[in-house]
Amino acid sequence: MTKSFKYWQTRTIVVTMIGYALFYFVRKNFSMAMPGMEADLGITKTGLGIFLTLNGLLYGASRFVNGFFADRLNARFYMATGLALCALSNFAFGFGEDIAGWITGEQSGSQFTNTLILFMGITWVVNGLLQGSGFPPCARLLTHWIPPKELATKMSVWNTSHSIGAGIVVILCGYIMGNMGVGEAHTGAWRWCFWIPAGISLVGSLFLFVFLRDTPSTVGLPELPETAALKESEASESDKAATKDFLREKVFGNPLIWILGFANFFVYVVRFSVLDWGPTLLKQSKEVDLHIAGWLVALFEIAGIVGMLVAGWATDRYLKGKAHRTCVFCMLGAAIFSFLFWQLPANAPIWTFFVVLCFTGFFIYGPQALVGIAAANQATKKAAATANGLTGIFGYASTAVSGVGFGWLAQHYGWDFAYIAIVAMALIGMGVFLLMWNAKADGYEESKE
Q1: Which CATH number fits domain 12-215+243-436: 3.30.365.10, 1.20.1640.10, 1.20.1250.20, 2.40.10.270?
Q2: pTM value?
Q3: Tell me, what DSSP letter sits at residue 252?
């Protein structure tokens, strides 16, 4: 590998990490704003869960659709434009009360409330659609810049981007909720949870445009020799029939991609149950102050970073790139520590919440990263974004459970039933990963035949 290629590889990884972290600034800010929206606007837990579910479902579908385009278009423009539009949708969401007041001519009453919820719902759904422009171009870029045998380790490093983004934004929004707004109740502070991250992300979109580039060939470098067998088929990519046949073989007709997709559903239920509901869950079921809850959720993300790095390293070092096998052990660990967290009493020392939640994050973020790596390797670099789009549909379909389902359970039956659901989902996910235990590490050998 030449010095020039190494420079551009490192630059691509770092720039896309920063960019994807900023996508989380304008998506996971919602979880910290939820207690304020519930108190100020009177939106129920089920209602907030509907927001999460609709956003997640549309995001999953958007990732799938964007996978087709990202495999063919310039990632630099694609990702930068998507982030800028997500930032603008967050600005609009924060101004929801003002816009609803302007439309109805009043600041209270049933008509105002219905208009407000409708506008905010549409805006957050639009944000979910736009968020799909974040990961697919990254998946495409990384498979062009990183050799298959190094992908698990280096993409695990890259995957820390969303944990970094989510961790920083929940800390930032925790301080916003505790220090901004009006009066002792900090009324209206939730609005700043959208405006401030949106401003940062808008600047970040300019950063992507300036520093990001596309594939090696766009900067005068040769493509990776490890994937040279696909060169001829890529050269004739304009042949729609050949492209469809390739996608049918490597993605839609590949049972391993479908197993990874089903498994991803359960991975994301566990992950989003903590990430989206963590601040509310900690405050209401464990009696933790909101600003401390923000730190705990951030530490859950930080532990996830360590978990991703260890899982990627262990996959390449001990399991010969077979990421699906690592996922089996990780899901078992996630189930055990989710159960232990449920059993902690509300008056337990704060360090116990920290330790158990960190171990939960450590184990669940291994599979979260490795599913994308496994899908990219099984589908090869030519269809990596499409394969990740398909598994992403399953991942974000999980918000039907972790969003409105979780909120409905907590509202009507209490938090205990929600905890039981988390543990059950982790165990089922482990079982799904076991279905592909004997699968090969990647699909490149089949592509050469």
Answers
A1: 1.20.1250.20
A2: 0.69
A3: I
